[in-house]
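pinging the channel bc i need a second pair of eyes. not urgent but kinda urgent?? the chain im working w is below, pasted from the shared doc
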Amino acid sequence: MAEVRSSINPILTLEYIQSEDENKWFDRKSAKIRVSDIAPLISAFANAEGGTIVLGINEKTRQIEGINNYGSIKINEFISSPRDCCKPMPSYREEFLNVVNVKGDADRLLLLHIDPNPDQVVRTNNDSTYLRIGDRTKELKGEDLRNLEYSKGLRCFEDECNSEATIADLDQALLETYREKLQAADLTFEQILKARGFIKNKNGQQLLTNGCVLLFAKDIQRFYPNCRIRFVRYDGTIAKTGIEMNIVRDYNIELPLLRIIDKSREFIGAQLREFVALNPKTGRFQVVPEYPEFAWTEGIVNAVTHREYSMMGSHIRVSMYDDRLEIESPGKLPNMVTIQNIKETRYSRNPRIARVLTEFGWVRELNEGVKRIYSDMERFFLEDPEYSEPGQSVKLLLRNNILMRNLRKKDWTVESIGENIWNTLDETEHQIMVFMSEKKQVTRLELQAHLKRSNGFVTKRLAKLIDLGIVKANGNTHDPKRTYSIVYRQ
């Protein structure tokens, strides 16, 4: 007997329909249900990523009840329910599957395949709005509903008015710099902001927009506590919690958008390490950064430019592990941009913010910057960047291939001091030399922390390495900031 399978969504076999748990794209209902009661499910699937409603399966027992006994009138009402019970009508297709019901009679299942509606919010006839989240159908109200409207481009957070901020709350130095970039010395700040759509008339009042305040505010946290970048450095390759928590650096950058990129670039750049790699063109080892500077900087610029600022409880997070750097930004990819087409498709959720950041020299066209992230990672012999959409966010993952680079560091260190000398050193001294090789200079305290040994132990080992002529001391003997570095062979 041929397998019962949907021709529209082949994953939906009869076995799947009966055995699998309901999920983000699939729900089952008995045909006993009132036609109007599936309207929330239609709205939820249309407002999310689409999905299929299977009618004729008991939700609790998962037995096949079929639909034939309910008559052609109710079946037709089910088929027309997306049109009759929702507004606007979402795109959908109906499909029948021939089955044998629990009584052993020939019967049918009705499948309603609801397509996603990316440009409109689909509501039920009583003006309720739903969203499919996992296996749940959630009614959206208040801020959740506004966020859905933002995500579909029906509302634009950057263009909405901020009723609290005034021009006096803006950073005058930033405004002056902006005026200079626009070569508009003859215009007042207010005239420039009006011309760029950053001041709007609302109920007879001249109000600044959210985009204006995000870009230029003196005290950004007063208006938008979520306008920050949190940098977290972990010791190792996984994030641990509780007594095993392995966070070694946790730092927040809280500035308006026109200052936050510069500060983030300066701070995060100082946290990144240097590695040693063989230059195939010269045949010599050279120091290279952990990641291409353009790749991680562009990742931060894109996060700042295109994130969803209406998500009040969220912020940009940069997580650094031993083997990777992750940049996570609130909000799904905007409009028609997907993980698959991100290298080719142009679209900005915040076009006014993007324009100002472009005028300040930060933003390129979205797909041009992403293309270069890929090419720069390839040029550094690193894996392709990975984009994903965990939950309601976008994540960029950059891998640093630390295992291979650790081997290269050791090879380069041996090459630099000579294999004969290397072979006379013990394992601890090998660790000291390799640790030094990734830094220009190190202190005794840094070596103590790296080796987890006492000051006396480290001092004795350094003395031996200095006597061998492969390490030199920099600075006065009694200087607590005295550093040590490798003496390389000429």
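so The longest helix spans residues 402-417. and The mean pLDDT is 87. — does that match what u expected or am i reading it wrong
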